[in-house]
Amino acid sequence: MIRVENLSKHFIRQASGRWQRGKGEVVQAVKDISFCAEDGQITGLLGANGAGKTTTLRMIGALLKQDGGHILVDGVAVQAGQQATQAQMGVLSDARGLYPRLSARENIVYYGVLHGMSREQAHQRVDVLAEVLELKPILERRCDGFSQGEKMKTALARALVHDPKNIILDEPTNGLDVLATRALREFLRWLRSPAGGSKCIIFSTHIMQEVERLCDHVVVVAHGKTVAQGSVAALLSQVGATDFEDAFVKLAFDQSAEPSIQTRSAA
Ligand SMILES: Nc1ncnc2c1ncn2[C@@H]1O[C@H](COP(=O)(O)OP(=O)(O)OP(=O)(O)O)[C@@H](O)[C@H]1O
User: I need a surface site. Which of 44, 96, 186, 235 has the fewest CB within 10 A?
Assistant: First the structure.
């Protein structure tokens, strides 16, 4: 189970103009995000571009340190850069970061070994994941020159190689064709089921269909804040809509617009 409470994070974006030296824009990427992702459920973070989804997932994956708030993974506090929660976490972040000179198989096995698997175990797991994610045709090819979808499938397999209990996926269907998207959806449903290990799965998206088809719990994020959460049915009834896209637009955009960017002297 992953519990996120009152998470916040800002970035300083340096101004580039000659007369702006020393000034910076404060980008409050995440202002106040709270939700709970249960085991055996798929939780979707749904929000417009720039809403703060990636930043939130990177903090949960211990890739970024939060300014405020708490993240508990199975009761253990997440600390950026520390190993405590990472062993049981599979993270597909926006930076796919594959080694171009290694084959898809080598990239995945390498991560498995880093997670403490023997090479034999890691190779066995690659064969299982290659079947499910339809990776077989590219498994022995160097990643250099891979298409977006091929990179995505390889990065997904790499994130899941150590069979983590908690799975964090940032826009996992980005670049996948319709068959690969369907295969991934099926796989996520299986991972959520008792047979697949009742994993705790969080993913971000702005695709409504994906949320409607997959999510048990939806967290709507706007301007860095949680503005609504619940099942698809609960969110529909909250705003009296029958179409989920209409519900999302009401929930995410009917908020009074709050700027995320302010100019100030950079510290
Ligand atoms: N390293 C950074 N430096 C400066 N600003 C950043 C940085 N990372 C994110 N931001 C800003 O924080 C805000 C939230 O970004 P984030 O990537 O979390 O949004 P998102 O919901 O994932 O968007 P998208 O759906 O477009 O991927 C945006 O305004 C973005 O420009």
Answer: 186
Question: Strand ranges (DSSP E) for 15-139?
Answer: 23-37, 41-47, 68-73, 76-77, 89-92
C-alpha R_g of the chain: 19
Summarised one tens digit per residue, pLDDT across range 214-240 is 999 999 999 999 999 999 999 999 999
Q: Which domain holds residue 92?
A: 2-265
Distance CA 113, CA 125 (A): 11
Distance 175 CA to ligand 1 centre (A): 19
The answer to whether the beta carbons of residues 12 and 26 sit under 8 Å apart is yes
- Dist. CA 52 → ligand 1 center (Å): 6
Q: If you write DSSP's letter for every residue of 1-13 in order, what string do you get?
A: -EEEEEEEEEEEE
Reported ipTM: the value is: 0.97
As given in the structure block, the two tokens for residue 116 are 């403490």
Structural domain count of the chain: 1
Distance CA(85)–CA(62), nearest Å, equals 8
29: CATH: 3.40.50.300
Sign of CA dihedral 195, 34, 236, 241: negative
Q: What is the pLDDT of residues 53-107, one digit of tens each?
A: 999 999 999 889 999 999 999 998 987 766 767 788 999 986 568 999 999 999 9
Distance 152 CA to ligand 1 centre (A): 20
Task: For residue 221, report the distance from its CA to the centre of ligand 1, in Å.
Answer: 13
Q: What is the mean pLDDT of residues 24-44?
A: 95
Instruction: Give the nearest ligand 1 atom to 45 CA.
Output: 21
Q: Which two tokens stand for residue 180?
A: 């690969």
Does the pLDDT at position 181 exceed 60? yes
Which residue minimizes the CA distance to atom 13 of ligand 1?
29
